[in-house]
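User: Please check token order:
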Amino acid sequence: MSTTRVSHPVFARFYTWLSQVLEHHGLAEHRQALLAGLSGPVIEVGAGNGLNFAHYPPSVTGVVAIEPEPRLRATAHRAATRAPVPIEVTGGLAEQLPAADASFDAAVVSFVLCSLADPGAALREMRRVLVPGGRLRFLEHVRADTPGWARTQRLLDATVWPRLAGGCHTARDSAAAIEAAGFTIEAEERFLFPAGVHSPISFCIRGLARR
């Protein structure tokens, strides 16, 4: 595998279809809330097929969107042409961001930390490229807050789920990882998505952290 490419062709096709379905069941509203109030230059890590792009506010001066999976990146390129702000889509790995120190006012991750081989290293990279006081916006599915579902998640993570879902791990505590990387979480909301549905990937968190 190259240092800038992650290839999951079957998952990429499935994710592109599923993500569009979820957008129409309320995920678009969560993306809107995730990005509201951002300004200045932004780096989005793990941009996927670019579904965040339509929700960036005009106060954002530009977005560098990192996506290592080539099929998802091609779809993100097309989404960037329709975005309300300038967006540059490029390859790269979250653990080795192609950006200078302190070059962005904000970083964005959505449903990314679950699938990284080393989320701690990726978060430290995001902290590196943010200006002092820079913001990290995150939207992730996380470890369940009930013992039964948490056990189910751990079982899935130890068996078939990561192989089927592009490396995704359902039981990660992303909030703890964000704090361990040196960020301070200032706001967070935990919720089920879709609303009222319990499944291994329905336990979600959306929030804001500061460098």
